[in-house]
Amino acid sequence: MDDSRIDMDKLSGALRRETVKKNVAAIHISGKLSLLQRKLSNVLLLNAYDALTTAQSHTIDARTLATIVGYNSNDFDTLRASLRALAETVAEWDMLDEQGKQEWGVSSLLSFAKLKGGVCEYAYSPALAQKLHDPKIYALINVHIQRNFSSGHGLALYENCYRFVRTGSTGWWNLETFRKLMGVDGSSYYESFKHLNAKIIKPSVAEVNKSSDILIEPGFRKKGRAVTDIRFLVRENPQMAMFQIDDGDGVRNLKTYKLLRGQGVSDRLARQWIAEHGEDYVQEKLNYMSGQDQIKSSVGYLSAALRDDYKPTTRVEPTQISPEAMEARMLRDAQRSREDADFEARQAERAERANQLNIVEMLVSRRNPTQRDADKQLFMTGLTDDLDRESFRSQGWRSGLNANAIIAFWKDLEPEAFDGEPE
């Protein structure tokens, strides 16, 4: 991560209140890391998030980790170097606690990391883990979004603007602060606003607007003729929903997901429940809960209902069931079985497509810039629909509308890459 700053809001209740009491908090991540190292840090935190404050260390398959981030899955030298860089990166916070007392702290971003037997094990210091274990931090780490970025500066700007999407503006940053956020402080070249604007601001703004779920617009404040401060107006990107691929297997578009969110279930937990139990099962528990009275916590009740398979109690004796009713029940059960099979087939299809697109991403990362441009031009010649072309311009090889065509294109180019696990 190039220098980044993440506001830490104190969230309470079910995270659904329109207004929450906020503390003054910020975590500053020092160190000038590459784009892939920044992505690696995000994926590690994402993997550890649920057990961040309860487990002393966390593990992830090293080959899987490398593939997700974008490394060659056999390039353990680069992975080791990146983990070393994260362990050498300093995180510093300066905040008010719940009693209004000032707290300052410093910690390495990773307290340790090791690779053994094809597994990556790593840990955060307890103090930093407490600061990072915040749902707002998790919401910022969107692996589907970060895959779209090709520069560390663009991803850094996205991360520092995303948290202001509800307020609509980042507020004014002096240029010294902005240079730190972008990881270019200490560079005499970027002391010149002309160079900063041409090489950092304009390209990063363009990448955020092209590759993410927000749109940003820079504004400048001057003293005389010299620019002294910068801010960004931030709003949601209305086109992103159209162009994002699957957005967590398309879960966020499901009625069940929206009902869960309406009950105060977090985005992460809603998607996790649907992935683990299936849409129909979760919907069944939602329906069951709707008939219950005096529920203190919807989230807690749903969690128990899913875990223990809450079902309505029935007092109908077998002798009271008519042959017609029995036949109707059997037909319903058969229909449910077919629906379950269809759902599993769709899940398997989505998983396979996601795996193939990961292979595409790996293949693209191996090409040099000239080859990448040629590949894009060649693929574009085969797109005749304006919406498909716009989707590809916006999302590139992660274009959901063109997923099948993209996979077919790369299978023609490098068929051997899809025969088995990518090397």
Automatic annotation (TrEMBL):
The keyword Cell inner membrane does not apply. Gene3D superfamilies: Winged helix-like DNA-binding domain superfamily/Winged helix DNA-binding domain. InterPro entries: Initiator_Rep_WH1 (IPR000525), WH-like_DNA-bd_sf (IPR036388), WH_DNA-bd_sf (IPR036390). Keywords: Plasmid. It comes from the Bacteria. Coiled coil: none annotated. The keyword Endoplasmic reticulum does not apply. Residues 19-161 form the Initiator Rep protein WH1 domain. Belongs to the initiator RepB protein family. This is Replication initiation protein.
